[in-house]
Amino acid sequence: MALIIDSLLREPFITPERVASVLQRTPAEAAEALDVAADCRVDGHPLIVRFKDVWTLSPTVGPTLLSWSLKRGWRPMTGSPPRTTSLSPVRQSRAP
Asked: pTM of the prediction?
């Protein structure tokens, strides 16, 4: 579960194939892990949701989870591009 959540905090979506790589399991086992994660609830809301053939953090739970993680010192891996989704807006400024 932790690896799936960590992956979704780093990437806007994941596939069973990507989860298989992260978990070092078969795609079928990864799909089962995603189904289990989808059954997890936070205040009655699903932790992750499926959209077509990919999985994302729930729009209800995702912002709370991201905020909680950042407050506790979680940071993306060095060299990883920032995640730019509606869950973690990046403010862009232009140099004068």
From this structure: 0.66
